[in-house]
User: Fold these one by one.
Assistant:
Number 1:
Amino acid sequence: MHVPAKPRASRIRYCCRCVMPATKPDLLIDDEGVCSACRSYEQRVEVDWTARREELARVLDQYRAAPGSNYDCIVPVSGGKDSHFQVLTMLELGANPLCVTATTDMLTPIGRRNIENIKKFGVDYIEVSVNPVVRRRINRLCLEQVGDISWPEHVTIFTIPMRIAVQLGIRLIVWGENPQNEYGGPTGAAATSRLDRRWLEEFGGLLGLRVRDLVGQYGIEERHLVQYTYPDEAAIQQSGVAGIFLGYYVPWDSLQNAVVAQAHGFETYPHAVEGALFNFENVDNYQTGIHDYFKYLKFAFGRTTDHACMMLRRGRLQRSQAIEIVRKLDGKFPSTYCGLPIQSILDEIDLGYDDFVRLCDRFTNKRLFVTDENGRLVKDRHGNLTKINYDNVDAS
């Protein structure tokens, strides 16, 4: 007997300007129905960007090393289009940067070629690759415990550049955009130009799981976690290391960054990446599709929503267009990513397909998706879910 699908009575609330749902962690939607990310963006028109760039030059001068004694700054880079833009900007300003890569979880061939491309700009470069056996164990453990396969990457992109800065006595780290500004977060965090330990602990994607919590699980020992550990506060204070967001000083725009990067040899995917609107973002890590899918299961938005919102705020899409794009592309089951079948990705962490599907169901917030009369998630033949509503006015 066929059991008809039945949406729950609850509804997802969306920003009235973009298509970001109120379910996004740290996002605030005000009394006028506008989200904090849109509010942050509208404030950009009031910024004197010429003055901000001059301020950036003064910051660089403040931290600049004596010629030949050390590097002026560290630029953490993944090889992506934003990394290209960050390095090029520092070189334009006359800085002598040390580029530092915390190697991604499951690097794609395009990702490797883009890392090598940055080196061609004429920079010194350090790449740190953590123990791959332990890394795979952490990937699986964090997927099972907090629903984030990319947790170890989110930790090391912050800890490794800071550890190298302290060890080499480099006093400035130049990060990219402030995610709390670009994607929405508390006002104080969105407006800051600095990244410090407090920001990392609150917004760095740890999801309540501490590095020391890994010890004793899947054979992980404390000695395996050196690169996952943030330097102690005394060492940071003694070294005087500071971290700044480049996006505070320049009008951050991922699409423009991609254009600049491509003009300097950055390689894109042949077509839009699965689950995304563009072909130039998150092309370096085969596990990203799983990461983005679990975000969708928990909060009912994925990478397509992120992209559509950025395009909306910059006047490149109409809201009605964005709603249809999100409905069509967002949150699809990650059967492939960058062309690699999901089983090959799961094999890397020794996880079976059926166990993966059960994990997906366990982390799915059923209040946000259509279920049948017995409370079971309704899926199409590809395993895709349907949100209970895609806008404030629709019913399905």
Number 2:
Amino acid sequence: MSKGKKSPPTLWEVPDDLWERIASLLDELDPPKATGRPRADARRMIDALIFRFRTGCQWNHIPHVYGDDATIHRTFQRWQRLGLFERMWAMLVEACEDLGRVNWEWQAADTTMGKARFGGDQVGPNPTDRAKDGTKRSLLTDGAGGPLAAVVAAANVHDTKLLEQTIEAIVVERPEPSEDHPQHLCLDKAYDNPTGEAAVDKHGYIGHIRRIGEEAVAEDKKSTQHAVG
């Protein structure tokens, strides 16, 4: 970051302008019921979820100022079923596009594995954690690191099997690559196989895949140059 520029403040509560957009989505996807018990304040629920995701705390450790933890969790589950969070994600990406801040020219995809303490449908033996149950998250980002797509699978699913699914999960309509506006996709050596290359070609990317053994060749060349020197 260049001198004189300050990083944006950490987001702990939804700002007014963003809340207006979220409120319109809630009116569409989760309008209040005409009868029955009034729902918890939606904006306070959003703030509670921001706190939960930023801190990683357990649901019952969310401060009481946000409301009852069971209510917050039920609200989260309902909104997830309704597709609210994906719509919010798409809305933010579209806003960035309007500002010319989405770098479609360069993109990257990779995966990460984690534990599956609470089970779920997308669970499998993690080969890096003594075959304990785990999940794998496949993420695609733009050139600035902004997330464009995410897919969750069992930990034992190979990265290349998730690549095409991840590309197709981009939350907004992806611009069509062209000769004047190409799109490059950077991948590590886990994608150095026919399945990975096929997904890159199918979706019109110019692939930049780290080749298996490339590190060893580079290290040998470096050692040879050092010995000669």
Number 3:
Amino acid sequence: SDPYLYRRCFVDWKGMVSNLKITSKQITFDFLVGYHNNQVLQGIVPVYLDFAADIRAATPFEVLGQVQLEGKHIRLKGISIHQLMPGSG
């Protein structure tokens, strides 16, 4: 309810990648938080990475990132991302 409480905090979330877009300057996607095991979707957060990464849509990942605000909307600046192995999580 108060996104300013989370500004600049770091989070480590598991989920799935959706709506993947890759340009020469950044990678963006919607992160389906908590949906890494295809059971419970806890929320959808836009994520951007300013580094190269091997990412496949609809694949379970863990993202470490910093919460940033655009108005009252939260997005995540990815710091690290790695693909989860089947059965982990």
